[in-house]
Specification:
By secondary structure, the protein is mainly beta. The protein is built from four helices and 16 strands.
């Protein structure tokens, strides 16, 4: 899986067409898929998805095309977890694009687990995306991945989920219930090294590193986290971390912030993805992304903006 697709999974990975209240409620049922230990929600924030589309020579901006939710979890035996659900709402998105993903990862004394589902998309141009959104006779395909890491071994299972209805992020529970009991593929992969169980944990660690060393980020291994995904190793690198006087989210001030620039590198293919996170450094917004920006396709730029209703 290419690095740009990994970032798409993580931040669309990085949702609710007809029932938006479901997105702003509780995170997914932890028992909807096996393997995760019981855990409690430590904190949770909601996001608005904005986009810029480039159908011709110029960028066209459209705000509020989807939603996102980021959850921090904690459990027994020092278990720490993160959960991300984010995507476009076809009722609001340009050309009715429906792209979304869900990712959950937890790590503790016994190892680490990652579970993710994503809408499958291979479009390389806006024309291909437009064509696919107009088709009503096709089977809709989603991918589900479950990865368990213990020591230097990863066991990865991948499943194809085929449904007749084009599910949105509002239908997460229905999609989880459709994950087949028997995976399409299963593989065990030896991992020579990994310093973080997953992307979300690696990003949180580097954000804290950036907070402590703002303006002094270097090429040192200190600013790199290696994590496994789908049986391959990826590097997440903090390329720079600069303080800003005031962060903004949903048109409101959020106090002092850090602008961190990151790079994801697939060690096998050498494909890379660049993205930016602006995050808070004080109070209850410390370590919380205020703005996430990246470009999963040359013709599409996505921004996730903190949008907690009770803060407005």
């Amino acid at each position: 899986m290419k690095a740009r697709r990994v970032s798409w999974v993580i931040m669309l990975t990085l949702v609710a067409c007809s029932t938006p209240d479901r997105l702003h409620g509780e995170s997914a049922d932890p028992h909807a898929y096996p393997g995760f230990a019981p855990s409690s929600v430590l904190r949770q924030h909601n996001y608005r998805v904005d986009a810029q589309v480039r159908p011709f020579l110029f960028w066209m901006r459209k705000a509020n095309i989807g939603d996102g939710r980021l959850t921090w979890r904690t459990g027994p035996d020092a278990t720490v977890g993160y959960e991300l659900l984010v995507g476009s709402d076809p009722g609001r998105a340009p050309r009715h694009i429906n792209r979304w993903g869900y990712l959950r990862e937890e790590s503790g004394a016994g190892g680490a687990m990652v579970f993710g589902v994503m809408s499958h998309s291979d479009e390389q141009s806006i024309e291909e995306a437009d064509k696919n959104t107009r088709r009503s006779d096709r089977v809709h395909v989603f991918k589900a991945l479950r990865q368990v890491v213990t020591g230097s071994q990863a066991r990865v299972t991948v499943s194809d989920i085929r449904v007749s209805r084009d599910l949105t992020y509002a239908d997460l529970e229905a999609l989880l219930a459709s994950v087949p009991a028997a995976p399409s593929t299963t593989k065990s992969v030896p991992l020579a090294e990994w310093s973080s169980p997953g992307f979300l944990t690696a990003a949180a660690s580097l954000m804290e590193e950036g907070r402590r060393t703002a303006g002094k980020v270097s090429a040192s291994p200190r600013f790199v986290r290696v994590y496994p995904y789908n049986g391959m190793l990826y590097e997440l690198q903090l390329r720079s971390a600069d303080r800003t006087d005031r962060g903004t989210s949903a048109e409101r001030s959020s106090g002092p912030a850090i602008q961190g620039r990151f790079r994801v590198l697939n060690r096998s293919t050498r494909d890379e993805t660049l993205f930016t996170i602006v995050y808070g450094v004080e109070g209850d917004l410390a370590g919380v992304p205020l703005l996430i920006s990246w470009r999963p396709r040359w013709w599409l730029e996505i921004q996730c903006v903190l949008h907690d209703e009770d803060r407005e």
